[in-house]
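Field reference: sequence -> structure
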Amino acid sequence: MTESAVDTDEYEHYEALVVGCGPGGAAAAAKLAEEGVETLVLERGVEAGAKNVSGGLIYAEESAPYTIDDLFPDFREEAAERPITEYHIHNIAGEKVKSLDITDLHEHDTEWSDAVLRRTMDSWLERRVHEKTREAGGGVLTDVRVNGLLRDGGEIVGVTCDEIEPITADLIVAADGVNSELARDAGLMDWDEPDEWFQGVKAVVDMPSDAIADRFGIGEGEGVAHLFSGNIFENVRGGGFLYTNQDTLSIGTVFHLDSLVAEEAEPHQLLDALLTHPLLADWLGDDYDEVEYSAKLVPDSKKVAHKSPHRDRLVLVGDAGGQMQAQGPVIKGMNHAVTAGALAAEAFVDAKRAGRPHDAGERYTEKLEESGTMQKLRPEAYETIAPLAENETATRLAESLVESPVGRLGIRALGTSGLERMFSNPTILKLMPDTKVPYVTVPTVIAEELGGEVHATSHVEPPELDDRIGDLTYDVGEPHIQVKDNSWAASGAAVSACPVSARDFGGGCYREETVKTNGHEERVVSLDTQPCVECGTCAIVADTDWEHPAGGKGVEFKQG
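Structure field:
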């Protein structure tokens, strides 16, 4: 974070420096190394994937200039779980459910799509990246936290780290995730508005592969994705998902953070509402075994994907640049990170050949536009309709219409085939407003009008929150979050919104306390960072100083 002039000759220098070895960072490093660029990758976890969480499906889009298997040809065989060959959405109203097959949407512009677990995937990518970058004179260093940008006379020239001396580079790729400290240090991203973010919470559930095949009706080389929406989630805008892995299930929820705060809903309880719904009873059976609980923030690219994600020598890729596409049942992020990482590398190589390596950021921005990537992330149709559709008056009118006899008649007239066509239309989804109507009202009415009762009985007993926290692996370091204002008004929202905290629960990060001052009682919050899963939620909903733990410290995800 040094602003004054520095003697850059005293620091180690690389042509390219990549921070983070998730799919975006791995793609950038692999492409750079293939072009002979000396590239060093710095990873905060004990290995790549130890800090990463995703739902998660990775796509290979037919229209994308790069896919993960373009850069790593044996990726699908070595690092993925199951191909996703079916895609369904379930509209829920109590115990009434109307299920729709929207595989056509899933297959739109799709070459293939696989379920993945981030620890398996990212650690495999790290090994391949290390091989490639070593050949070009670099490599991968783990257990290193990059804590800020190094500046020379105000210009970004490198990075500073907790564990090693500063490093300079001609290109710096910030692929350090949704909580990117580099993006914030550069003034390119901020955490000011809860409505610009989603929060995802996930359970990985152990299940033998033959049980998965039997319970979900899939064969070898097949997998299925299920999405859930309606009134199951206490009117919070968002929904749930279930993806089949090789011998586990990924089951989770994703909600708009501002809605989560407004409803004072607790993330672990919303997840439990999904896990225990009778719709999932036959799938989960009587032998529920949850092996990992995790959480993360997700950027809403429609609002935060940076249209010019660079400054000086720094470029942002993936979640660090807000490049996560979430438009109703369209949930794509890792594939866009791969594209962005490879395009950033391509831009640097082009700029270097032109003798102007520090122009890579401008070329990268141009490539994001020319490839159509930015249009996917920030569709013009949404930006046009949002001011009209996302206001209180429009929302009330839309809710009234959907719930009226006319609206209900329209849903019955559409029927299953009409609704499946509507849910599978990418153009319609680009126009979908971020309001309660499409997430709660419409699916609830669909279930009420067209759904049938689910008569199964769930025997799932999700672990208590303290057990979920206790089952995670931590290497506790120094506290990495400080509450600046512990008043309830400033920071109380974190008590319920933090996925490892809850009201009347004394074992999480954020806790409610009552203190007496001058004869008056006051509600305040206290903080213990030991059980933190590093999702970043509190950085947005509370008044904190938030940073990542040191390299190798904090939570370590075994599934991700």
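Note: Residues 334-353 form the longest helix (20 residues).
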